[in-house]
Amino acid sequence: MAAKILIIDDEPLLVKGLKHRLKQEGFQVVCAYDGEEGLEKAKDKDLDLIILDVMLPKIDGFTLCKEIRRTSNIPIIMLTAKGEDVDKIVGIEIGADDYLTKPFNTRELIARIKALLRRVKMPYTKEEGAQKEAMYQVGDLRLDFSGRRVFLNDKEIELTSKEFEILTLLARHPGRVYSRQSLLEQVWGYDYMGDTRTVDVHIRRLREKLEEDPSSPHWILTKWGTGYYFKEMI
Predict the structure, then answer these.
(1) Phi, psi (5° rounding) for residue 109?
(2) Cα torsion at 128, 129, 135, 139 (round to 10°)?
(3) Domain C-terminal end among 70, 91, 121
């Protein structure tokens, strides 16, 4: 079945053109033109991905993203007309998986959509693929790959899709240091043109959710000047 995408944007011409292109790519498309309508349509359990504009009437995109994240880990790509890094980073901090600044190239957006959907279905690399078990546990941390769920001390931890993929990659290769650029390439799944600080934001969010003391992490460690790695268990 074709993936179902929700576009939430108050620019009718942009929505019309984007809807047409996405349908050409074989996607199902539904649209909303303000935050309230978007919040209602985001409750559709059959949705596979949301394209969300920051500047919306009634409920702004940042608030809407946070509301959606209360009940769903569906991939979200945020669109912003602003170029400031703070807007982009705030978008990631509230749970967005990716962002694009308007005006954007539709082909790039479609590439990012396909990459996100592909990574949701394939949370680890091709060579690992079918050879890996559906469950992975290290210490008190348990990853359920088939259900895309994470448990710490038997308590479920809510992660976004990108957070889950970063954790999966690091946990699968304890002790191996990944640079920020390497994480962008392997987790985002395309030639990412954004700021590598996006990785730092995701790592910080993971630590806040997993670590008893995020400033002194136990699971995800930093190799200064190089990148991040998962603690090797002895």
Answers:
(1) -60, -45
(2) 20
(3) 121
Alpha carbon 41 to its chain's center: 20
Record the pTM: 0.72
Q: What domain range is 29 assigned to?
A: 4-121
124 contact partners, CB below 8 Å, separation of at least 6: 132, 145, 168, 169, 172
Query: Which residues are CB-contacts of 141 (< 8 A; sequence separation ≥ 6)?
Result: 150, 151, 152, 171, 210, 219
How many CB atoms are located within 10 Å of the residue 93 CB? 15
Residue type, 31: C
14 and 117 housed in the same domain:
yes
Q: What is the DSSP letter of 219?
A: S
Residue 121 is predicted with a pLDDT of 66
Q: 117 Cβ partners below 8 Å, 6+ apart? A: 3, 48, 49, 75
- State the CATH number of the domain containing residue 174: 1.10.10.10
Residue 95: C-alpha distances to residues 107, 164, 225 (Å): 24, 12, 26
Beginning with the edge strand found earlier in the chain, give each strand of the sheet holding 4-8 in spatial order: 28-32, 4-8, 49-53, 76-80, 98-101
Residue 126 has pLDDT above 60, yes or no: no
Does the structure show a pLDDT above 70 at 130? no
- The H or E element that residue 192 is part of is none
User: What is the per-residue pLDDT across 11-70, written as a single tens digit (0 to 9) for each?
Assistant: 999 999 999 999 999 999 999 999 999 999 999 999 999 999 999 999 999 999 999 988
The total number of structural domains that make up the chain: 2
